[in-house]
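Q: Sequence in, structure out?
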Amino acid sequence: MLRIFKIGCLLLSCLNLLNCNGQTPKKQSNSLSNDFDKSMPFYYNMPEDLTTSDTSPAYKGKGQKILLTGTVYQIDGKTPAPNVILYYYQTNSLGVYETKEDEERNMPKNKLGHTHGYIRGWLKADEQGKYSIYTIKPGTYPSRNEPAHMHITIHEKNMKDPYYIDDFVFDNDPLLTTNRRKKMENRGGSGVIRFVQKDGLWIGERNIILGLNIPDYPIQNTNSVNSGKNIGEDIISFTPFHAFGADKGTKTCPICKYGWYHGVLYFVGNNPNWNEIKYWLIFLDNESKKREKYLKAYFIYGNESNYNLNNRKQELEKLGNELELTKVALTFVPSFSDKASEVYLNKINPNVENTFLIYKRSNIVDKYVNLKPTPENLIKITNLLDETANEYFKLSRAKQN
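A: Exactly. Output:
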């Protein structure tokens, strides 16, 4: 009996070493390394109890107040990931990592003069993966050699070490050039924030995809056939020729002109199934009519076989008239590897039957490859558009001061 009692006590002691989420073998740290690259100060002054929403110490002061919010997903981009810890730090509105000794979260400079300042914090995604950060918009470094940004680091409960993801950066920043966007690593998905405004608060959404574009990440996405950029990444602008629709006769970038609300990019390459294409186009046209300005749908045809510009233009124009389409744009490129239109940057596989990239604010919220126009799949897309049109969806763009 005594032996059983001792075993029970031992098991209870082991369980008490873990918190309720099995989260963290490491505890709060009060020491700083001289090399932040080798020893990240993720835990410096970290509180023991974290919530799903955090307000930075700067929020009560001067500067444009912002809310950064979204959902943390597993690597499939669809399954919410609960209890993930997020650590952020940023400059003040002047672009300086300011220190304040009287602030609880303050990080003093180490021996090399490095610091994350006092505008920093931690939060933990809730059971649905939701998170929210209330802070001020960081300023650009005085040198103006980088766009304004907020650093963000992730710690998953089953991983030993934290890892960084792409910074939060801001779409309206003149320093965030096209070349910079193309060079982004998209770690955890795109970090580009597109603000809407509610009263004086600017609101930006970002969904975080765990492990996406993280080297040596232990879990791999299991999609057997891949085509197109990943969920969580931004659509890269490209210029197809418009054979039918509002921009007929032009080479117009879908994302540049219609990227603010929802969009559906329906790509078909070397293996068109015209009966199914017609079914999809009628469905997308009806959805566009129902949702008005809040949805723009595009058909992008990239069949390399026997390509001729005039023939392709006539072929799609005839199709649009036959189906009596009023909202869907019918466009084409010579191939999905075409560099003149820059469609190649979106990584479409020309040999699959189709690729659907569904976006919101130019960011991919879902992707389907070889999707059949079954009643179940039509409902799936309708539901996705409904579910991602949240409380911020129809708000106006933030206005620069």
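The chain has a mean pLDDT of 92.
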